[in-house]
Amino acid sequence: MKTSLAPSTRRKHLSALDRLYDSVQRQRGSDSLDRLIAEVDADALEDCLVGFLAQLRNEAAVTNVDTTSTWTCGVSFVSDMLRFFWNLRRSRVQNGSQAAQDRHPVPAART
After folding, report:
1. Euclidean distance between CA atoms 45 and 8, whole angstroms
2. Does residue 20 contact residue 28 with C-beta atoms inside 8 Å?
3. DSSP-assigned letter for residue 4
4. Structure pTM?
């Protein structure tokens, strides 16, 4: 989350994330969202997000309150975390490849 956000905006984002975590916990058990993101379990994440969207739509229908920002914040968080883990894994693979090359350098061609 951006640190430059105004306190009220930060509270709204954190509230939306709390709601997402609560929704996933009700659907799959405790600590599930973090685990699903870390394991990049796309099918389970999709199921959880669909459940979260259904919850928000039902609440909006009953309360007549727009929940779009809550949904957007939740989806953005999951997308950002998946992107972070993807980049981290890619970096580790690239660093692992470099480390292997450092251990077993290819001799330079003689001319």
Report:
1. 28
2. no
3. T
4. 0.77
